[in-house]
Design brief:
By secondary structure, this protein is an alpha+beta fold. It has helices spanning about 1-10, 20-25, 30-35, 50-60, 70-75, 90-100, 110-115, 130-140; strands spanning about 10-20, 40-50, 80-90, 125. It binds adenosine-5'-triphosphate (ATP) and magnesium ion (MG).
Length: about 150
């Protein structure tokens, strides 16, 4: 019982998106396969076509960046897959599996290297810290009881 409680305490949840470019290219199944092979547990998942307003709210931290308008337009070009992923050290682990923001700079074997086309059309999103994970999970899954 003590060991179980200890392991549970290391668990963390992150927020992930399979972006519209990857859904459009029919890479959803292969990306989810990689997520499960890596040991994440999917606690929530939704296929959803974001409005520009929803994308703008989600990426509000980037609103002064030169690519903000292009990014939020891209994110609403088609449905994406929204997910809550759980594992030990989930935030860092999911960013490692995704690879660098720019697919051209991403390591071999990462999702962005394999499925990303450009720095903007880079297949996946992942929270970068506990506070952004909490904001992003709450933004898209408000009031949800995560499945166990
Ligand atoms: P994400 O937040 O999507 O997980 P990230 O943390 O690796 O990616 P950020 O710097 O937070 O990258 O940028 C958010 C998103 O904005 C990127 O994933 C990408 O789609 C887009 N983006 C980032 N830099 C550029 C750029 N220079 N030109 C166009 N789009 C960009
Ligand atoms: Mg980011």
């Amino acid at each position: 019982a003590h060991l179980l409680a200890y392991n549970r305490s290391l668990m963390e949840m992150t927020f992930a998106i399979i972006k519209p470019d990857a859904v459009r290219a029919r890479h959803t199944g292969r990306i989810i396969e990689r997520i499960e092979e890596a040991g994440f547990t999917i606690r929530a998942m939704q296929l959803r076509h974001l409005t520009v307003k929803e994308a703008e709210g989600f990426y509000a931290v980037h609103k002064e960046r030169p690519f903000f308008a292009s990014l939020t337009t891209f994110m609403s070009t088609g449905p994406c897959i929204l997910m809550a992923l759980e594992s030990e050290d989930a935030i860092k682990k999911w960013r490692g599996l995704m690879g660098a923001t720019d697919p051209a700079k991403a390591d071999a074997g990462t999702l962005r290297k394999e499925f990303g086309a450009s720095i903007e059309n880079n297949a996946t999103h992942g929270s970068d810290a506990p506070d952004t994970a909490a904001f992003e999970l709450g933004y898209f899954f408000p009031g949800i009881q995560f499945a166990r």
